[in-house]
Write a structure and sequence with these properties.
11 strands; 4-stranded antiparallel beta sheet; alpha+beta; 5-stranded mixed beta sheet; 391 residues
Length: 391
Amino acid sequence: MFERIRHIRYVLVLVAVLIAIGSLLISNYLISDLEQEERNRMGVWAEAMRSLNAADENTDMNLVLKVINGNRTIPVILTDKKGVALSARNIGKRFSSDEDSVLYLSSLAKEFRSHGRVIRIDLPQEFDQGGYIHICYDESLMLKRLAIYPYIQLGVVVLFVLIAIFALFSAMRAEQNKVWVGLSKETAHQLGTPISSLIAWHEVLKENYPDDVLLPEMEKDIKRLERIAERFSKIGSIPAPKPENVLEVLSRVVAYMDKRTSNKVQMRTVFPDGEVIANLIPSLFEWVAENLCKNAVDAMGGAGRIEVVVEEDAQYVYVEVKDSGKGIPKSNFRSVFKPGFTTKERGWGLGLSLAKRIVEEYHHGKIYVKDSVIGVGTTFRIELPKGNVNV
């Protein structure tokens, strides 16, 4: 399912890119055609102005004026050979004085010329000893809007893709939540019957063999199973974290793991003096710590060193589980928390994924691979918001 979701995401991004590229190419092609059309129109307009300046009794003034007055969209400024504005059309700006008008139009005409939008018209000899004027023009408002449109369209496409991906992830997350909650509740329910049976058998054995030294250990394991069932039953019910001493919780985990692992595995704790308070759901956080320790034992092949370190600052409590195992490639630092990812021959790849959900969703913290070196070991780090004893 997760691979399918990932493929859909890539398809959406690819479609968005293709739409964007296609839109930009088509728009640029149309804009290029319109620019050429406007250049041609300005060429005709310049010829009309040249005819107007050189008009005689044979010139059809109606046609010339019709061409000149027909330009209602392209901004045009006429300047003399010194660059001083003489007149303008379609500028669309009001001025407080004639001096302001000339200065502004002359400056604007200079800007038009810098973009190559200028046509020179030579004047007849009787005008200023054969001088010339410049017709400086700019793109029409419609052309400018069309030039901006592809980027607006691109923004809309990107926004659509982002919304689609967000909706896809939300649906996937909701589906995952249902799977996790259903699986957890069903596991807790299935564990209930054999645990009840074990409790009954334990009572029978206690009556018949009260001095048996194995009964206390059996009782501990039964209570252990009860706590496991309790953990699974709490997933989905969203219990509120409460201030707890992290050192006590981790000490229980280390003591439990130390008894149930090989003598070849050395477990060590590095704790600060006094209490370290964080907002915890003890039963769930114990499961996270146990999962990290069990993974460490597997990574070391049943022989090595595990170190549980606790540090704190003003805002957070930091829990690190270090092992001397085979290590994790840097490319897999994030993948290890994805459902289904596993390096074991027999494994579901759900342990670290569930641990991540417990830390982030129930404890509002973070869990990640802090460091790992192939053949040397791995360090997982958990960051928890600090609790208050008086809460």
